[in-house]
Design the sequence.
């Protein structure tokens, strides 16, 4: 009996130890438990939802960006248009200021000085006297100072994009005004700055002068736009080489806005060699020029071809008995 009782007591003591150990472990687990277990599937679902939401936000931002870019481009185009308008208005303002200054100077002239500004009768050849009449007086308000004693006219016209797009109507007005100061001549020719003829059936020949022919020239000019390299040199040289004659008095009119060639001195030397003079030292082909200030509406660093055109034409006309007229604006009058 005693041995059985002793064994039972030992078994009970061992169970007490085991229970205390499990109790301690459970207590430790309760103390160290801070977060609930994470369910992996629910976490993945939650992340997918966040990614989808961020993608939707990204698409929305991209759409708004495209809209903003369209608005920005439209504003930039409007800004460019406004800049062009400002350039044109500045040109007009400069013209008005120049005209005002000229009127102020004219108002201060004495009667004697005004008399010096009167247009003189040109020295006419016998041929021109029969065409115009002995007492013909040039009424030239637009191209002042250009002699009108020539029997033949050649127009060298810059047909580049800058002229055709911005100054074409003013160019037509200038050609009409020039023709008006020559009521009758023996022949006319129209070439572009590359030497291309306006009328192919009159290549290397003079166009007979008549009212119908003049109307045909102006009509054709309104849509005439052959290729141009923005340099009048080729046209001038071809015209002189083709039409120069010792027995003809020819006036050549250059209409343009820029010179893209390399050497001004070389051009002057070449023209001097082919445009011979008479026994009085006068060049038989009189070269006149009208400059259109199209290039000067550009930024200052892009105006070089316009400046070089003016420099070339001023010297070329001086050496060849003509006049260079630089216009203040290229808007139609």
Sequence:
């Amino acid at each position: 009996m005693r041995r059985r009782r002793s064994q039972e007591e030992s078994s009970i003591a061992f169970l007490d130890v085991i229970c205390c150990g499990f109790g301690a472990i459970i207590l430790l687990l309760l103390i160290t438990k801070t977060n609930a277990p994470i369910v992996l599937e629910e976490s993945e679902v939650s992340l997918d939802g966040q990614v989808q939401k961020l993608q939707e936000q990204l698409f929305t931002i991209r759409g708004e960006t495209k809209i903003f870019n369209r608005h920005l481009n439209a504003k930039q185009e409007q800004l460019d248009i406004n800049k062009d308008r400002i350039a044109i208005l500045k040109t007009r303002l400069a013209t008005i200021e120049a005209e005002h200054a000229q009127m102020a100077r004219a108002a201060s002239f004495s009667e004697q000085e005004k008399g010096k500004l009167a247009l003189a009768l040109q020295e006419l050849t016998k041929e021109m006297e029969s065409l115009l009449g002995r007492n013909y007086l040039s009424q030239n308000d637009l191209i002042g100072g250009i002699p009108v004693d020539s029997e033949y006219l050649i127009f060298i016209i810059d047909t580049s994009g800058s002229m055709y797009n911005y100054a074409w109507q003013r160019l037509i007005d200038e050609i009409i005004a020039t023709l008006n100061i020559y009521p009758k001549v023996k022949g006319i020719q129209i070439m572009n700055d590359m030497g291309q003829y306006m009328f192919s059936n009159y290549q290397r020949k003079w166009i007979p002068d008549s009212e119908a022919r003049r109307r045909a020239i102006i009509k054709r000019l309104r849509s005439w736009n052959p290729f141009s390299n923005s340099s009048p040199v080729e046209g001038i040289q071809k015209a002189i080489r083709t039409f120069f004659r010792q027995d003809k008095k020819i006036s050549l009119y250059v209409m343009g806005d820029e010179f893209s060639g390399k050497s001004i001195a070389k051009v002057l030397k070449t023209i001097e060699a082919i445009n011979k003079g008479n026994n009085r030292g006068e060049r038989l082909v009189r070269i006149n020029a009208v400059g259109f200030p199209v290039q000067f509406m550009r930024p200052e660093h892009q105006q070089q071809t316009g400046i070089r055109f003016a420099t070339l034409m001023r010297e070329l006309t001086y050496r060849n008995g003509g006049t260079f007229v630089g216009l203040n604006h290229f808007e139609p009058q």
